[in-house]
Structure formats: C-alpha cells, structure tokens
Amino acid sequence: MCLPAINGELMNLTQKISFIGAGNMATSIIGGLIRGGISPTQLNATNVDKDQLARLQAEHGINALDDNISAVADCDILFLSVKPQVLRSVCEEIRDAVQQRRPLIISIAAGIQISSIDAWLGGNLAIVRCMPNTPALVGVGASGLYANPLVTETQKAAAETMFQAIGLTEWVSEEKDLHAVTAVSGSGPAYFFLILEAMEAAGVRAGLSAATARRLSMQTMLGAATMALQSDDDPATLKRKVMSPGGTTERAIESFEKDGLREMFDRAIKAAAKRSEELAQQLGASS
Ligand SMILES: NC(=O)c1ccc[n+]([C@@H]2O[C@H](COP(=O)([O-])OP(=O)(O)OC[C@H]3O[C@@H](n4cnc5c(N)ncnc54)[C@H](OP(=O)(O)O)[C@@H]3O)[C@@H](O)[C@H]2O)c1
C-alpha cells in the first residue's frame, strides 16, 4: 500500500484541530495526520458512538471530548465530519461557540454548500469545503477543495497540507466545480472497480482462472496509474507507447474506440455531476 511519507509541513502545523464526527473519513484523516507527524495531543474528536471514539483514542492517543462545544472552544481548525443529514443540527448546536472562537471551518459533508454552513454557524466565517474519496481510507485519496474568500493563504496552505496526508489535493476556483470533482474522483473509484469486474470476467472467458484474471487486472491498473503518475508523458502518449502497429493492444484499443468508450465516459460523468447538483438542491431544500 502506498501511504504518504512523513510530511515536513504537517510537522510545522502547530494549531489545535478538532473533529466533530469521528467516523470513517475522520478516522482516515486523523490517521494520515498522525503518520504525517502531527502530535496526537493537537487533535480533539467527538462522536455520538462513544465506544468508537474510545477506540480511536486508544489507537492514536488523541483527545476524546465529551461534547461538541468543548471541541470548538479548544481548536483553531474545526473539521465538520458528520453525515450531511445531521450537519445543520450540529452547526446550530455549536454556533455560539464558533462565533466566539472563529476557527477555520473545514466541511467534508457531501453536497452542503458553504452558504448554508456559514448561515447555520452565524455567518462571516472562513470555510473550506472538501470532496474526498474512499481511497483516502488507505491513504491514497484524491480530494477536491474549495475555499471561500474569507480563507487566508495561510489557512489554505494548512488545509492543503492536511488533506495531502490522505492523498492528492486539487483546488477548484468555483464551488460549483465540486460537482465535477464528485463525478470524476468522488464516484471515480467505482468506475475503476467496474473496469476490474469487466476485465476479470473477460479474462475468465479468455481462459484464465478468476483469481489469476483478477490479480493480473488489479496489478495492471496499479502499474498503469503508477506509470502515468511518474511519467512526463500524457496518457495518450503512454497508450501509444504500448501499441505497436498491427499488434494486440492496437486491436483492443480500436475495438474500444469503435464501441464508443469515450462517449460512454462522457455520458456517465455528466450524469453523475447532474445527480450531484440534484442532491445538493435536495439537501439545501430540506435544510
Ligand atoms: N466515506 C466517504 O468516502 C466520503 C467521501 C466523501 C465525503 N464524505 C463525507 O464525509 C462525511 C463523513 O462520512 P463518513 O463516511 O465518515 O460517515 P460516518 O462514518 O457515519 O461518520 C460520521 C460520524 O459522525 C457521528 N455523529 C453523528 N452526529 C453527531 C453529532 N451530533 N456530534 C458528533 N458526532 C456525530 C456519527 O455517529 P453515529 O454513527 O453514531 O451517528 C458517525 O460516527 C459525510 O458528510 C460524507 O458526506 C465521505
């Protein structure tokens, strides 16, 4: 597994960081921060499920707090890492404490706009919204980030450094671009799992055992992604380098192109981005 190395910039981050909601995603981020060199004493977390919180404390040595208000009162950076459906009630609960302390707010709640979070928290706050993806759980996530105009360059750098602890980060210049981020990298892991399923099945039909076809497909995906990440060549050039004229790869690529693979991706990503907009509207409307 390819986890990010010790991150020197993280070690320079001296702020207190609180997590409200210590579920899957918060646990991954906390693990990444600690691996990157943050002291566990800098980290606070709260959670409804106290057993889960106690496990996190036992594993990482972070401060497990009893209530959300204390978590806000003792932080410079506040992660809102609860499910979108409960975010409004959490924000209203901590509103006064947030207005008093005025930490940098980082929301990872899918679909909830900064304007809603800002209004629920009393307004005029520096807020970063992040769309991570599930490979963050194994330290190789891809996160899209957007900062509102009140976020300072120093705060942006801190947010970026923290999300780099769980993988790659990309800033977008407009909040609405997070719909495209959701469609490409948020939902993206499932597209590659689909390709793995399809390659395994095709490999079996071509005569391999399922286990062999799966292992070869997974390693090939990892190898291709690693080459693409490490190379200065763009994917089209890398693809051409695998294709010799009249060879096997050329035949397969011609088959994909003839069957409209590019158009299929275009339609799928547009459909996902549209669904992200619809869900954001529903969450906004119900809030
Ligand atoms: N997982 C992903 O791949 C992914 C990707 C992109 C974005 N996100 C976003 O990340 C956020 C967290 O997702 P997750 O998968 O980590 O969810 P999760 O595992 O359900 O974590 C959320 C945690 O918050 C706790 N919680 C609920 N109400 C609370 C409150 N009032 N005060 C303190 N803690 C509270 C929950 O406890 P209970 O379970 O006991 O209610 C749960 O442990 C979501 O908003 C999601 O949209 C997740």
CATH class membership of the largest domain? Alpha Beta
CATH superfamily of the largest domain, please? NAD(P)-binding Rossmann-like Domain
Largest sheet: 8 strands, mixed
Q: Beta-strand level of the residues, as a percent range? A: 5-15%
Fold and architecture overview:
This protein is α/β, with parallel strands linked by helices and 287 residues long. It folds into 2 domains: 8-178, NAD(P)-binding Rossmann-like Domain (Rossmann fold); 188-276, ProC C-terminal domain-like fold, CATH 1.10.3730.10. The chain is 57% helix and 12% strand. It has 13 helices and 8 strands. An 8-stranded mixed β-sheet has the order 3-2-1-4-5-6-7-8, sandwiched between helices. Helix 5 links the parallel strand 4 (77-80) and strand 5 (104-107). Helix 8 crosses helix 13 (261-286). The longest helix has 26 residues, at 261-286. The radius of gyration is 21 Å and the shape is elongated. The chain binds NADP nicotinamide-adenine-dinucleotide phosphate.
